[in-house]
Amino acid sequence: MGDPKAFLTIHRKEAGYRPVHDRIHDFGEVEQTLNSNDRRQQAARCMDCGVPFCHWACPLGNKPPEWNDALYRGDWELAYRLLNSTNDFPEFTGRVCPALCEKACVLNLVEHEPTTNREDEAAITEHAFEENYVRIRRPERNGKAVAVVGSGPAGLVAANRLNLMGYKVTVFDKNEDAGGLLRYGIPNFKLNKAVIDRRMGVLRAEGIDFEFNREIDVEDLPGGFDAYVIATGTPEARDLDIPGRDLKGIHFALDMLAQQNRVLAGREFGRAERVTAKGKDVLVIGGGDTGSDCIGTAHRQGCRSVTQIEIMPKPPVGLDDPRNPWPGWPRTLKTTSSHEEGCTRRWNVNSLRFVGEDGRVTGVEVQQIEWKPAPDGGRPVMQPAADPEVIKADIVLLAMGFLKPQLPQLPPNVFVAGDAATGASLVVRAMTGGRDAAAKVDRYLSRK
Fold it and tell me: Nearest 5°: phi and psi at 82?
């Protein structure tokens, strides 16, 4: 703990976002950065708690007190080594992680000004690439080969770990490039894809092979490998089976998000297949992060308006909800950079049917509802609270989450990682799953 009084004298300072009027006209990253001096001051605020709840809250077991101290002292290389010892790709989590560590920070409890761990993490990693602290490692091979199916965060972490253990690793992916939802789900304004490409250069240089445009059947895995890691994520989105679902203009969120990212990568789509919000009234059904990403993308495509509805109640505002105590993750109202760009948000809204004209959607009939406690103490009961109404929409985006895949019984040398194992979750949890799967593969093959 470099400065034991810094948390008393220095307030939390975030880098903030680019101005709305500027950022909605491009897909550049919205988050700004602090200068090195300000960043070191922010690192000084870490109290190096006797019980580091940040470490407890992080699925990867990151050690913010240690690398924040190194950052405060100006030893950026040590900071990166400490960070990278638990986190294979901190440049990803430093941009898209919701920072569970910050919510569990003691300063969040007493001052509501936690240490800026996520921003510090991103800054440390960018400095590491700039100063060549990210060095190529070429491990000695142990004669065994492992296939990883899926190149999202779980698959890439599993591949990286196994490669560094000495296994010959080949990664298969159905898409044309690596990253999974990092590349085809998260918009560029949150994660520039050059960040993924930069890490891919490191992984390739360290000996990992990648085979893209390969759809792999988990019941017919490619031969020639001693073990397999299945990291295919949750490819099936949750649908909304109500009347009018067959109308044109109703899309899953990823139909829009993935296509837009491919357009930015240089791929062309015909007018008939292009999913765009340009000049349209947009309705997003689903109140989570994917829905938020749709809002930001719709603005950049030139929409007329955006409305987001959620069937669940509005989360509480603030951090002092007794039902939601520290240091657990606070289920409070989240306002993202995309929401700041303009959006009508509504909660406790149930969708009844899609309405349309000439085969195209023109709106959604919805009804305000309320949730009542179940008499038997089970799941709350949904009850109407107002008359039905129609929300006008030229395009509807379904962002209601993803279904956990049902995998068959797999042989003992096949291991499942990330969302494919747990269902849809956070990038940081998927990365943890990839790390754990790599350890299981190593134990299995070491016994053999």
Answer: -65, -40
- Return the bridge partners of 392, or none: 363
CB atoms within 10 A of CB 27: 21
326 phi/psi in degrees, rounded to 5:
-65, 150
**pLDDT tens for residues 83-94?**
999 999 999 999
Would you say 67 and 437 are in contact if contact means Cβ atoms under 8 Å apart?
no
Residue 349 tokens, joined: 């809204």
Question: Residue 318 has which token pair?
Answer: 């603030």
**pLDDT one-digit tens code per residue, 236-260:** 999 999 999 999 999 999 999 999 9
Instruction: Measure the CA–CA gap between 414 and 94, rounded to whole angstroms.
Output: 31
Q: What is the band of 138 on the pLDDT scale with cuts at 50, 70, 90?
A: very high
> How many CB atoms sit inside 10 A of residue 222's CB?
14
